[in-house]
Amino acid sequence: MTTGMKKDLLPVNPMAVNLKGNPKLHKTGNSYRTLIDGKDCATERITQIAEEERNAFVTGTPSYIKEDTTGFINSLREMPSSVPKDAILFCLDIVKLYPSIPKKEGLKSCEHALDIRSDQTISTEFVMKMIQTVIEGNNLHF
Length: 142
Fold this sequence. Notes:
With 142 residues, this protein is of the alpha+beta class. It is 41% helix and 11% strand. The chain is built from 5 helices and 3 strands.
């Protein structure tokens, strides 16, 4: 990594990650949905690079729809005119469920996705170090 790259990865004024919770009103037991705002945190820039490197795998999966729910609705227009009667169509609008993924399995999946990238300009080993730093090196404020 060049000195310029290192400088670009360092945050100017890093702040603690803000951790918040939205109550799941439809569930009993006062559970919360975790919301994390990592803007301006110490690992924000390496998180962006790691996500971009992993993104080729995610967007290349057959079930990936490039947009949100609207993208799903638009893709329905491209389906064959006859859908089997027992077919169940559904859409999940999911973005970044990192707090819900077991760490060990998540890291293994990331490494697999990175190993099969066509562009290996940034090595799998280096991206994995970035991901590990993000997972273990963030500080939270709540």
